[in-house]
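agent> Task received from the user: take the single chain below, predict its 3D structure, and emit structure tokens. No templates, no multimer pairing.
agent> Plan: (1) validate residues, (2) run structure prediction, (3) serialize to tokens, (4) report one or two observations.
agent> Step 1 OK, no nonstandard residues flagged.
tool_call: predict_structure(input=
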Amino acid sequence: MNRLAILIGCLLLLQGCDFFEKKSKEVVVAECYGKYLYASDLKGIVPENTATLDSIQRINSYIDSWIHRQVMLHQAETNLSTDELNMEKQLEEYRNSLVLYAYETQLIKQKLDTVVGDDEITEFYEQNKEDFQLRTTMVRVAYVILKGDCKQKAAFEKLMNDPDTLMLQHLDVLAMYYAEKSFLDVDQWIRLDELTNIIPIEILNVEKFLKKNKYVRLDSDDYVYMVRFEDYLLEKSISPLEMQYANIRSVILTHRKKALLDRMREAVYEKAKKDHAFEKYMGTPVIESNN
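)
tool_result: status=success, residues=291
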């Protein structure tokens, strides 16, 4: 007798219930509204090397879950009309969609050219610049947040004010040891509102503020905030290519996928037409109105 059979036997003895034998001498472990859960349905429920008590609990939990599901299915079947219960068409459509999706996914993996060159991305950007208008102000910045009693404030301020961006490498080392939080990637564009959620800067006029300030320091009771602005792009200006590079590549690949599938569908249709694989037996059917 295998381990699963022993566990089921233990479970049934613990529950004090009889087990049934229905078709093909299958052991039935639960019944609900004329539907049966067989011992064979429990295979794979219990992982190998699971303790006996844990195994029994896991099987019992699965059986309880199956019963709850059958109860709800019975309730649904009792209250739905015959038309609502007739799901053959929906199931067929669902199966067809899955089959087509699996085939088209396989075709894309085999046939799609995923190499997108810089020239193609640049050309797409130049031809569609109007589509890359910014919806919010973007900035390139470096910032550090220090505790108010940090003894390295002067060193941080000197480096943050240095126009040589290579000095940020020294900031990186200092920030590792002394900063509460830092962001030093001045090549990355971030939203201005994301920055002001971290650094409590009050900005009344965005354009005037960014034109005037290259470095900002704020002191509070607990923290010192230092921000260095490298560049900015105002809302409604055109987003730079580097910000849109990954998006453009994704769009180009999406267009290629669609073109590949369109060609495949047309080729398959034309072949079927040439092979006389289908035939129309009537014109467009006339659908009578119920009104």
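agent> Step 4: summary for the user.
The first strand starts at residue 20 and ends at 21.
agent> Done.
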